[in-house]
Amino acid sequence: MAALKTEISPQDNEDENERENDVEEAGGEITPGDESKKKKRKKKKKKTPTEDTERVVEDGKADDVNEVNDATLEGEGEKKKKKRNRKKGGAKVTQTDPPSIPIADLFPDQVFPIGEIQDYRVNQDDRTAKDRFTSEEKRALDRMHNDIYNEVRLAAEAHRQTRQYIQKWIKPGMTMIQICEELENTARKLISENGLKAGLAFPTGCSRNHCAAHYTPNAGDPTVLEYDDVVKIDFGTHINGRIIDCAFTHTFNPKYDKLVEAVRDATNTGIREAGIDVQLCEIGAAIQEVMESYELELDGKTYPIKSIRNLNGHSISPYRIHAGKTVPIVKGGEATVMEENEFYAIETFGSTGRGVVHDDMDCSHYMKNFESSYVPLRLQSSKALLNIINKNFGTLAFCKRWLDRAGATKYQMALKDLCDKGVVDAYPPLCDIKGCYTAQFEHTIMLRPTCKEVVSRGDDY
């Protein structure tokens, strides 16, 4: 049998303390009658706020009673604000320009900004989808994954702040190496690079004009960004393998605006159509319809804008940028459906050329095969290079510049050996016909149980 616990109210304590003080003042016991008299005297001594403010006004210290009340409230508000700041460890930290303060330091509570929330598109009779947001079960599932969502949002905020700085900083006449190194150094600071726990998820793509994807400069590449270039900046950040894959197209000459607009609109269409139980082929058909409703007038000639049919979006899983499902950007893809709590990179590519890409130029992107089993290596140089790859990149993509940074030397033969044996896969630049122009936009989305979160969305795109 449980013991009975007696509660004492705060008012009882206050009355008891008051009685004790009165006893001390009187120097002995106070009778119940004396106690009531004492309380009356105390009540008489109290002044109402109105009496106080009227006295101040009479003294000429304020022209309006409201001024006194406002001043009092402001003073109390400032005290409370200072007290809150002291509890949190001081004033709020703001980002520098150029950005250099880690994102984790900007959010002392370690709760990072939520991306754009979109409701799932539903048919009129689809009660299950309609009830997702109000379902307590689905909201409970959401809460179960909060830690994962928060990690992805941290990576997204690092991506957002990095790209917004680069968009203002980038200028014609800069070398592509200079651009990539500035971007990567900034992102490494903001993400607080820490081995395989936090850092860049893949090399910075800066493909120009007819080259649509997978170009980053190797050491010694003299390529310079020009005013008439259409450049696709595609880079990724990650926390504990939770990857943000996000890209934009940057131009200086406004004559390419329609091409950029078409691809941005197509990407947003793909994001809008995506959702739990949605067939991937339906998304591809919607993207193509929007993309190919645009055309570009360039130097007196009109070009239809085509979806690049052999490029697509993809699912993402921890430490795996291409996790098995593809999101086409033309009609006729697979009928596979998206599922709850999957992560996707929705990306679209538009071209004024043939709308098909092929391998071209020197290879710079590489990635260890995620499903590769043990392969015996005879060359000592191959073993040494594989150790560097495992330690620094794991199954995340890398480039030759990053091998140089990791301390690898004379690795060309070893890298070829690893590729020949299927331990590492090469990803050469992907190009349409020379003379055409290509553009790209991309966002990472989370298919949460209650809603769709475009986690990499920003004010820029």
UniProtKB/TrEMBL annotation:
Pfam families: Peptidase_M24
Chemical reaction(s) catalysed: Release of N-terminal amino acids, preferentially methionine, from peptides and arylamides
Species this chain originates from: Zophobas morio
Similarity comment text for this entry: Belongs to the peptidase M24A family. Methionine aminopeptidase eukaryotic type 2 subfamily.
Residues binding substrate, per UniProt: H214, H322
Positions with biased composition (Basic residues): 38-47, 80-90
Parts forming coiled coils: none
Keyword presence, Transmembrane: no
Record's compositionally biased regions (Acidic residues): 12-27
Gene Ontology molecular-function annotations: initiator methionyl aminopeptidase activity; metal ion binding; metalloaminopeptidase activity
Major location (coarse): cytoplasm
Protein name (Swiss-Prot/TrEMBL): Methionine aminopeptidase 2
Segments for region (Disordered): 1-102
Record-level GO BP terms: proteolysis
